[in-house]
């Protein structure tokens, strides 16, 4: 019962974020009250430094952050899982050093630094998705490889290899059903990382929209003493979104 409740709550929160622009009482750029108005005067959470409704801006900025994080997480986890599975099942010794050694080197670099290096070359949303995906590939590859190595020695997998089954059949019918749980859990972790990296990019000025939650944090910092809700709401939104997504992924596996 508790497990089902957590899944429903997480999915409900994700749905609210996706529908945020439709639920927002005002546009993201419309001044509705004097700057730094307290809660109740200019809305539930007051207004920002330009008099815009904090709640509306948060609702408008959630969807771009969520979608960008989802695409980045799926891309990074998918590519990483493919590399890890191939490495674990390959019979030739040269496959592992060719595929995994570069990823081991990449894993030693902090994800935020990897993201900044990629964004320097491609400073747009496509570059942001690519940056987050590249930062996610090494760890996803390790998880997939470890999970596949645990099932590689099973009789049905060895029999399929001995029969000369194609790689696509081997992975899809024999291996993936056994490692789907760990891969799904890893996807949840990659999504949480993606949320933080996308928000960090907005904090550094490489936002996904004009109401990106990272950008809202930057704009709210100078007036935090006057209107703390303008800072607390996007910070809480990032934390709650990440936790809800992670818990939902864990309960679904």
From TrEMBL:
Domain ABC transmembrane type-1: 66-244
Entry's family note: Belongs to the binding-protein-dependent transport system permease family.
PROSITE patterns registered for this protein in UniProt: ABC_TM1 (PS50928)
Record field: transmembrane: 65-90, 187-206, 226-245
Keywords: Cell membrane, Membrane, Transmembrane, Transmembrane helix, Transport
One GO term (biological process): transmembrane transport
InterPro entries associated with the record: BP-dependent_transpt_permease, MetI-like, MetI-like_sf
Name of the protein this chain belongs to: ABC transporter
Organism: Amycolatopsis orientalis
Subcellular location: Cell membrane
Pfam families (UniProt xref): BPD_transp_1
GO cellular component: plasma membrane
């Amino acid at each position: 019962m508790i497990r089902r409740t957590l899944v429903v709550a997480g999915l409900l929160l994700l749905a609210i974020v996706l529908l945020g622009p439709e639920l927002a009482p005002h546009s993201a750029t419309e001044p509705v009250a004097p700057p730094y108005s307290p809660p109740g005067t200019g809305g539930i959470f007051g207004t920002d430094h330009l008099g815009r409704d904090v709640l509306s801006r948060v609702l408008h900025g959630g969807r771009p952050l969520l979608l960008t994080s989802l695409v980045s997480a799926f891309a990074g986890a998918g590519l990483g899982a493919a590399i890890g599975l191939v490495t674990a099942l390959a019979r030739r010794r040269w496959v592992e050093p060719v595929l995994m050694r570069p990823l081991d080197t990449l894993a030693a670099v902090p994800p935020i630094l990897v993201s900044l290096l990629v964004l320097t070359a491609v400073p747009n949303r496509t570059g942001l998705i690519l940056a987050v995906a590249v930062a996610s590939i090494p760890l996803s590859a390790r998880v997939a490889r470890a999970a596949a190595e645990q099932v590689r020695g099973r009789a049905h997998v060895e029999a399929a290899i001995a029969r000369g089954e194609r790689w696509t059949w081997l992975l899809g019918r024999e291996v993936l059903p056994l490692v789907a749980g760990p891969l799904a859990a890893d996807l949840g972790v990659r999504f949480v990382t993606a949320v933080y990296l996308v928000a960090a990019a907005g904090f550094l000025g490489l936002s996904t929209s004009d109401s990106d939650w990272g950008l809202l944090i930057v704009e709210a910092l100078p007036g935090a003493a006057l209107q703390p809700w303008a800072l607390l709401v996007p910070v809480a939104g990032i934390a709650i979104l990440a936790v809800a997504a992670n818990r939902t992924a864990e309960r679904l596996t």
